[in-house]
Specification:
The chain is built from eleven helices and eleven strands. The chain is an alpha+beta fold and 329 residues long. The strands form three sheets. The chain has a five-stranded antiparallel beta sheet with strand order 6-5-4-3-7, covered by helices on one side. α1 crosses α3. The longest helix is centred in the last third of the chain and has 20 residues. The chain is elongated, with a radius of gyration of 29 Å. The N and C termini lie far apart (76 Å).
Length: 329
Protein backbone atom coordinates (compact mmCIF):
# COMPACT_ATOMS: atom_id res chain seq x y z
CA UNK A 1 0.00 0.00 0.00
CA UNK A 2 1.03 3.60 -0.55
CA UNK A 3 2.89 5.11 2.37
CA UNK A 4 1.47 8.62 2.02
CA UNK A 5 -2.20 7.86 2.63
CA UNK A 6 -3.89 10.19 5.15
CA UNK A 7 -4.08 9.22 8.80
CA UNK A 8 -7.86 8.86 8.87
CA UNK A 9 -7.62 6.09 6.27
CA UNK A 10 -5.07 4.28 8.44
CA UNK A 11 -7.40 4.63 11.42
CA UNK A 12 -10.28 3.09 9.48
CA UNK A 13 -7.94 0.31 8.35
CA UNK A 14 -6.79 -0.37 11.94
CA UNK A 15 -10.40 -0.34 13.18
CA UNK A 16 -11.41 -2.90 10.57
CA UNK A 17 -8.45 -5.14 11.36
CA UNK A 18 -9.17 -5.06 15.10
CA UNK A 19 -12.82 -6.02 14.62
CA UNK A 20 -11.95 -8.72 12.07
CA UNK A 21 -9.18 -10.08 14.29
CA UNK A 22 -11.63 -10.46 17.17
CA UNK A 23 -13.98 -12.48 14.95
CA UNK A 24 -11.31 -14.90 13.72
CA UNK A 25 -9.30 -14.89 16.97
CA UNK A 26 -6.21 -13.49 15.28
CA UNK A 27 -5.60 -10.10 16.86
CA UNK A 28 -3.51 -7.55 14.96
CA UNK A 29 -0.48 -5.91 16.54
CA UNK A 30 1.80 -3.02 15.60
CA UNK A 31 4.14 -5.23 13.58
CA UNK A 32 1.42 -6.88 11.46
CA UNK A 33 -0.42 -3.61 10.88
CA UNK A 34 2.77 -1.74 9.99
CA UNK A 35 3.83 -4.43 7.55
CA UNK A 36 0.48 -4.51 5.75
CA UNK A 37 0.13 -0.71 5.57
CA UNK A 38 3.83 -0.22 4.80
CA UNK A 39 4.59 2.22 7.59
CA UNK A 40 6.74 2.04 10.73
CA UNK A 41 5.69 0.38 14.00
CA UNK A 42 5.94 3.77 15.70
CA UNK A 43 3.41 5.22 13.27
CA UNK A 44 0.93 2.47 14.09
CA UNK A 45 1.63 2.88 17.81
CA UNK A 46 0.83 6.58 17.57
CA UNK A 47 -2.37 5.74 15.67
CA UNK A 48 -3.43 3.30 18.39
CA UNK A 49 -2.83 5.95 21.03
CA UNK A 50 -4.81 8.45 18.99
CA UNK A 51 -7.71 5.99 18.72
CA UNK A 52 -7.70 5.45 22.48
CA UNK A 53 -6.98 8.97 23.75
CA UNK A 54 -8.65 11.24 21.16
CA UNK A 55 -11.43 9.11 19.70
CA UNK A 56 -12.30 7.30 22.93
CA UNK A 57 -11.95 3.89 21.31
CA UNK A 58 -12.07 1.07 23.91
CA UNK A 59 -8.90 -0.52 22.54
CA UNK A 60 -6.67 -2.70 24.71
CA UNK A 61 -3.66 -4.96 24.17
CA UNK A 62 -3.96 -8.66 25.02
CA UNK A 63 -0.48 -9.95 25.99
CA UNK A 64 -1.57 -13.58 25.73
CA UNK A 65 -2.85 -13.26 22.16
CA UNK A 66 -0.27 -10.61 21.25
CA UNK A 67 -2.71 -8.16 19.70
CA UNK A 68 -5.26 -5.40 20.09
CA UNK A 69 -8.99 -5.85 20.67
CA UNK A 70 -12.02 -3.77 21.66
CA UNK A 71 -13.38 -4.18 25.17
CA UNK A 72 -16.80 -3.20 23.79
CA UNK A 73 -17.84 -5.64 21.08
CA UNK A 74 -20.23 -3.27 19.30
CA UNK A 75 -17.75 -0.41 19.00
CA UNK A 76 -17.07 0.75 15.44
CA UNK A 77 -14.96 3.72 14.44
CA UNK A 78 -17.09 6.19 12.48
CA UNK A 79 -15.91 6.62 8.92
CA UNK A 80 -16.33 10.38 9.18
CA UNK A 81 -15.24 12.84 11.81
CA UNK A 82 -17.18 16.05 11.59
CA UNK A 83 -17.23 19.38 13.36
CA UNK A 84 -20.36 21.17 14.53
CA UNK A 85 -19.88 23.82 11.85
CA UNK A 86 -19.60 21.12 9.19
CA UNK A 87 -22.79 19.47 10.41
CA UNK A 88 -24.55 22.83 10.20
CA UNK A 89 -23.40 23.13 6.59
CA UNK A 90 -24.80 19.66 5.87
CA UNK A 91 -28.17 20.66 7.34
CA UNK A 92 -28.22 23.71 5.09
CA UNK A 93 -27.28 21.57 2.10
CA UNK A 94 -30.19 19.24 2.89
CA UNK A 95 -32.53 22.23 2.73
CA UNK A 96 -31.03 23.30 -0.60
CA UNK A 97 -31.49 19.75 -1.87
CA UNK A 98 -35.26 20.14 -1.67
CA UNK A 99 -35.24 22.39 -4.71
CA UNK A 100 -34.57 19.21 -6.72
CA UNK A 101 -37.46 17.33 -5.08
CA UNK A 102 -39.41 17.01 -8.34
CA UNK A 103 -36.43 15.81 -10.35
CA UNK A 104 -34.88 12.31 -10.61
CA UNK A 105 -31.64 13.49 -9.00
CA UNK A 106 -33.45 14.06 -5.69
CA UNK A 107 -33.76 10.34 -4.91
CA UNK A 108 -30.08 9.78 -5.62
CA UNK A 109 -28.98 12.69 -3.44
CA UNK A 110 -31.28 11.64 -0.58
CA UNK A 111 -29.59 8.24 -0.61
CA UNK A 112 -26.19 9.95 -0.37
CA UNK A 113 -27.35 12.08 2.57
CA UNK A 114 -28.73 9.02 4.35
CA UNK A 115 -25.41 7.24 3.92
CA UNK A 116 -23.58 10.30 5.21
CA UNK A 117 -25.82 10.51 8.25
CA UNK A 118 -25.26 6.84 9.12
CA UNK A 119 -21.49 7.37 8.89
CA UNK A 120 -21.41 10.16 11.45
CA UNK A 121 -20.05 9.63 14.94
CA UNK A 122 -22.75 8.91 17.48
CA UNK A 123 -21.50 11.66 19.82
CA UNK A 124 -21.93 14.39 17.19
CA UNK A 125 -25.46 15.72 17.03
CA UNK A 126 -27.36 18.89 16.29
CA UNK A 127 -31.00 19.82 16.64
CA UNK A 128 -32.01 20.82 13.09
CA UNK A 129 -35.47 22.03 14.13
CA UNK A 130 -34.35 25.64 14.43
CA UNK A 131 -33.31 25.58 10.77
CA UNK A 132 -36.84 24.93 9.56
CA UNK A 133 -38.16 28.23 10.86
CA UNK A 134 -35.18 30.40 9.91
CA UNK A 135 -34.00 29.20 6.49
CA UNK A 136 -36.02 28.96 3.28
CA UNK A 137 -35.00 28.37 -0.32
CA UNK A 138 -37.15 29.31 -3.30
CA UNK A 139 -36.47 26.80 -6.04
CA UNK A 140 -36.47 27.34 -9.78
CA UNK A 141 -39.46 25.90 -11.60
CA UNK A 142 -38.09 22.51 -12.63
CA UNK A 143 -39.16 20.80 -15.87
CA UNK A 144 -40.72 17.36 -15.67
CA UNK A 145 -38.18 14.63 -16.34
CA UNK A 146 -38.80 10.94 -16.85
CA UNK A 147 -36.81 9.04 -14.23
CA UNK A 148 -35.89 6.19 -16.58
CA UNK A 149 -34.73 8.61 -19.28
CA UNK A 150 -32.62 10.43 -16.71
CA UNK A 151 -30.94 7.23 -15.56
CA UNK A 152 -30.38 6.02 -19.12
CA UNK A 153 -28.89 9.30 -20.32
CA UNK A 154 -26.38 9.52 -17.52
CA UNK A 155 -25.56 5.83 -17.74
CA UNK A 156 -24.48 6.46 -21.33
CA UNK A 157 -22.35 9.38 -20.14
CA UNK A 158 -20.77 7.26 -17.40
CA UNK A 159 -20.04 4.30 -19.65
CA UNK A 160 -18.86 6.40 -22.63
CA UNK A 161 -21.46 4.78 -24.88
CA UNK A 162 -23.70 6.28 -27.55
CA UNK A 163 -27.21 7.33 -26.56
CA UNK A 164 -30.23 7.08 -28.85
CA UNK A 165 -33.48 8.91 -28.08
CA UNK A 166 -36.51 10.70 -29.46
CA UNK A 167 -36.31 14.47 -29.10
CA UNK A 168 -38.87 17.24 -29.49
CA UNK A 169 -38.00 20.91 -29.70
CA UNK A 170 -40.20 23.42 -27.84
CA UNK A 171 -43.34 24.12 -29.89
CA UNK A 172 -42.81 21.17 -32.25
CA UNK A 173 -45.65 18.67 -32.62
CA UNK A 174 -43.46 15.78 -33.73
CA UNK A 175 -40.27 14.36 -32.28
CA UNK A 176 -37.24 13.11 -34.16
CA UNK A 177 -34.60 10.51 -33.44
CA UNK A 178 -31.05 11.41 -32.51
CA UNK A 179 -27.92 9.43 -31.68
CA UNK A 180 -25.41 11.29 -29.53
CA UNK A 181 -22.01 10.54 -28.02
CA UNK A 182 -22.33 12.36 -24.65
CA UNK A 183 -19.23 14.26 -23.50
CA UNK A 184 -20.49 16.46 -20.68
CA UNK A 185 -23.54 17.24 -18.48
CA UNK A 186 -24.66 20.74 -17.48
CA UNK A 187 -27.24 21.89 -14.95
CA UNK A 188 -28.82 25.27 -15.66
CA UNK A 189 -31.91 26.71 -13.96
CA UNK A 190 -33.14 23.31 -12.76
CA UNK A 191 -32.77 21.78 -16.24
CA UNK A 192 -30.14 19.22 -17.20
CA UNK A 193 -28.42 19.18 -20.58
CA UNK A 194 -26.19 16.65 -22.29
CA UNK A 195 -23.42 18.03 -24.48
CA UNK A 196 -22.12 15.66 -27.11
CA UNK A 197 -21.48 14.80 -30.72
CA UNK A 198 -24.72 14.49 -32.70
CA UNK A 199 -24.37 11.84 -35.42
CA UNK A 200 -27.08 13.49 -37.57
CA UNK A 201 -25.78 17.07 -37.39
CA UNK A 202 -22.12 15.95 -37.41
CA UNK A 203 -21.29 18.50 -34.72
CA UNK A 204 -21.32 19.02 -30.95
CA UNK A 205 -24.79 19.97 -29.72
CA UNK A 206 -26.66 20.30 -26.43
CA UNK A 207 -29.88 18.44 -25.61
CA UNK A 208 -32.28 19.00 -22.70
CA UNK A 209 -32.88 15.75 -20.85
CA UNK A 210 -36.51 16.72 -20.14
CA UNK A 211 -37.23 16.76 -23.89
CA UNK A 212 -35.93 13.22 -24.44
CA UNK A 213 -38.11 10.10 -24.68
CA UNK A 214 -37.47 6.45 -25.51
CA UNK A 215 -33.82 6.75 -24.51
CA UNK A 216 -31.56 3.72 -24.79
CA UNK A 217 -27.86 3.10 -24.34
CA UNK A 218 -26.41 1.60 -27.51
CA UNK A 219 -23.88 -1.19 -27.63
CA UNK A 220 -21.36 1.23 -29.08
CA UNK A 221 -18.46 2.66 -27.12
CA UNK A 222 -16.73 5.83 -28.24
CA UNK A 223 -13.54 7.63 -27.35
CA UNK A 224 -14.18 11.22 -26.22
CA UNK A 225 -12.02 13.65 -28.20
CA UNK A 226 -8.90 14.52 -26.26
CA UNK A 227 -9.16 18.15 -27.35
CA UNK A 228 -12.70 18.66 -26.00
CA UNK A 229 -12.76 21.10 -23.12
CA UNK A 230 -16.15 22.28 -21.91
CA UNK A 231 -14.87 25.59 -20.58
CA UNK A 232 -13.33 26.33 -23.95
CA UNK A 233 -16.40 25.04 -25.80
CA UNK A 234 -18.84 27.18 -23.82
CA UNK A 235 -16.55 30.20 -24.01
CA UNK A 236 -18.08 33.55 -23.03
CA UNK A 237 -21.56 32.10 -22.75
CA UNK A 238 -24.50 33.78 -21.05
CA UNK A 239 -26.80 30.91 -20.13
CA UNK A 240 -26.98 27.51 -21.76
CA UNK A 241 -26.64 28.54 -25.41
CA UNK A 242 -23.22 28.74 -27.04
CA UNK A 243 -22.04 30.32 -30.27
CA UNK A 244 -18.88 31.00 -32.23
CA UNK A 245 -19.22 34.76 -32.66
CA UNK A 246 -18.32 37.33 -30.04
CA UNK A 247 -20.68 40.21 -29.18
CA UNK A 248 -19.82 43.27 -27.11
CA UNK A 249 -22.93 44.03 -25.07
CA UNK A 250 -23.71 47.38 -23.44
CA UNK A 251 -26.86 47.89 -21.36
CA UNK A 252 -27.90 51.15 -19.73
CA UNK A 253 -29.75 50.99 -16.39
CA UNK A 254 -31.82 53.84 -15.03
CA UNK A 255 -31.44 55.13 -11.47
CA UNK A 256 -34.10 52.78 -10.09
CA UNK A 257 -32.61 49.60 -11.56
CA UNK A 258 -28.91 50.49 -11.33
CA UNK A 259 -28.49 49.53 -7.63
CA UNK A 260 -29.76 46.00 -8.34
CA UNK A 261 -27.63 45.60 -11.47
CA UNK A 262 -24.58 46.96 -9.69
CA UNK A 263 -24.68 44.53 -6.75
CA UNK A 264 -24.23 41.30 -8.74
CA UNK A 265 -21.65 39.65 -10.95
CA UNK A 266 -23.72 38.87 -14.03
CA UNK A 267 -20.83 37.80 -16.25
CA UNK A 268 -17.10 37.18 -15.67
CA UNK A 269 -16.14 39.86 -18.21
CA UNK A 270 -18.48 42.57 -16.97
CA UNK A 271 -17.42 46.18 -16.44
CA UNK A 272 -19.55 48.94 -14.99
CA UNK A 273 -19.44 52.55 -16.15
CA UNK A 274 -20.92 55.07 -13.74
CA UNK A 275 -23.09 57.78 -15.31
CA UNK A 276 -24.58 61.00 -13.95
CA UNK A 277 -27.93 60.83 -12.13
CA UNK A 278 -27.03 57.42 -10.61
CA UNK A 279 -27.35 55.55 -13.89
CA UNK A 280 -24.86 52.94 -15.11
CA UNK A 281 -23.79 51.11 -18.26
CA UNK A 282 -23.03 47.42 -17.86
CA UNK A 283 -20.66 45.96 -20.47
CA UNK A 284 -19.63 42.36 -21.14
CA UNK A 285 -18.75 40.03 -24.02
CA UNK A 286 -20.80 36.95 -24.92
CA UNK A 287 -20.95 34.40 -27.73
CA UNK A 288 -24.77 34.11 -27.94
CA UNK A 289 -27.52 36.71 -27.59
CA UNK A 290 -30.71 34.72 -27.00
CA UNK A 291 -30.35 34.37 -23.22
CA UNK A 292 -29.15 37.98 -22.95
CA UNK A 293 -32.31 39.14 -24.73
CA UNK A 294 -34.57 37.27 -22.30
CA UNK A 295 -32.60 38.64 -19.37
CA UNK A 296 -32.81 42.24 -20.60
CA UNK A 297 -36.56 41.93 -21.09
CA UNK A 298 -36.93 40.85 -17.46
CA UNK A 299 -35.77 44.33 -16.40
CA UNK A 300 -38.67 46.04 -18.17
CA UNK A 301 -38.14 49.75 -18.77
CA UNK A 302 -35.25 49.80 -16.32
CA UNK A 303 -32.74 48.49 -18.90
CA UNK A 304 -32.00 49.75 -22.41
CA UNK A 305 -29.69 47.92 -24.83
CA UNK A 306 -27.09 50.23 -26.38
CA UNK A 307 -25.19 47.59 -28.36
CA UNK A 308 -24.84 45.42 -30.36
CA UNK A 309 -27.43 46.42 -32.94
CA UNK A 310 -28.51 42.77 -33.34
CA UNK A 311 -29.55 42.69 -29.68
CA UNK A 312 -31.30 46.06 -29.98
CA UNK A 313 -33.40 44.68 -32.83
CA UNK A 314 -34.20 41.45 -30.98
CA UNK A 315 -35.44 43.32 -27.90
CA UNK A 316 -37.34 45.87 -30.00
CA UNK A 317 -39.14 43.12 -31.95
CA UNK A 318 -40.16 41.26 -28.79
CA UNK A 319 -41.44 44.43 -27.13
CA UNK A 320 -43.36 45.40 -30.26
CA UNK A 321 -44.92 41.95 -30.44
CA UNK A 322 -45.90 42.03 -26.76
CA UNK A 323 -47.41 45.53 -27.13
CA UNK A 324 -49.36 44.46 -30.23
CA UNK A 325 -50.80 41.49 -28.34
CA UNK A 326 -52.12 43.78 -25.64
CA UNK A 327 -53.44 46.40 -28.07
CA UNK A 328 -55.11 43.79 -30.26
CA UNK A 329 -56.60 42.16 -27.21
Amino acid sequence: MAKNKPQYRRLIFIDQKIRLGTQIDRLPNCSSLAQEWEVSRKTIQRDIEYLRDELNAPVEYDPLRHGYYYTEENFKLPAIRIKQSDLFAICIAEKVLRQYENTPIYDNLVTVFDTLEKSMPAQVSVDPSWLHGRFSFFAEAAPTMDHDVWQTAFEALRQTRSLQFQYRNPGWKKSYQRTVDPFHAVSFRAEWYLIGFCHYMKSIRSFAVSRMTEAQVLDRYFAPPTDFDFEEFSGSHFGIMFGKDEFSVAIKYDADSAPYARERQWHPSQEIEELPDDEIVLRFTVNHLFEVKRWVLSWGKGATVLEPEELVEMVRDDLAGALAAYIDG
